[in-house]
Amino acid sequence: MTEIHELKNYDPNIRWGTHTLKVKFQQFEYKGHIIYESKGNVKGIDVLPSDIDNFDGSSFKENKPNFQDLGEDWFKMTLKNNDGEKLLIEDEWDSLGEYVVGLEIIGFEETDGINW
Q1: Phi and psi dihedrals of 47, rounded to 5?
Q2: What are residue 97's phi and psi, to 5 degrees?
Q3: Which of 41, 53, 85, 91 holds its CA 20 to 30 A away from the CA of 112?
Q4: CA gap 75, 81 in Å, rounded
Q5: Cα dihedral 61, 6, 114, 47 sign
Q6: Are 108 and 17 in contact (CB under 8 A)?
């Protein structure tokens, strides 16, 4: 069963806060996703491209492909198809964007930006 996440309210006048982001990965029919939080004074698309290269795994809320930083500019993850078969991917960080098929803001919580 697939979880459905929906952003309920995204006030254009509020910038300081914590965004909850979902990144979907795919290669062939193998898929996976991570959900993580990003804090800052940004809005909309500005939070997505700048943050995808900077997540470190410590703030993952979900990590379906067991995404891991291997150090030395490498990462690994295991994607699955609908039959449960697995595909292990090990690649350089510079290639991460080649596996991304979706980026979505699924939550936002306003903060004052002071107590991070």
Answers
A1: -80, -25
A2: -60, -25
A3: 53
A4: 20
A5: positive
A6: yes
CB 65 within 8 A of CB 32: yes
Question: Residue 49: pLDDT band by 50, 70, 90 thresholds?
Answer: low
Task: Tell me the residue type at 79.
Answer: L
Express each pLDDT in 65-85 by its tens digit: 999 988 888 999 999 999 999
Q: Name every residue whose Cβ is closer than 8 Å to that of residue 61 and which is 6 or more positions away in sequence.
A: 20, 35, 36, 37
78-94: buried (b, 16+ CB within 10 Å) or exposed (e) per residue? bbeeeeeeebebebeee
Question: H/E element holding 49?
Answer: helix 47-52
Region label for 88, one of left (φ > 0), alpha (ψ between -120 and 50) or beta (otherwise): beta
- Per cent of the chain over pLDDT 70 is 83
Q: Nearest 5°: phi and psi at 113? A: 80, 0
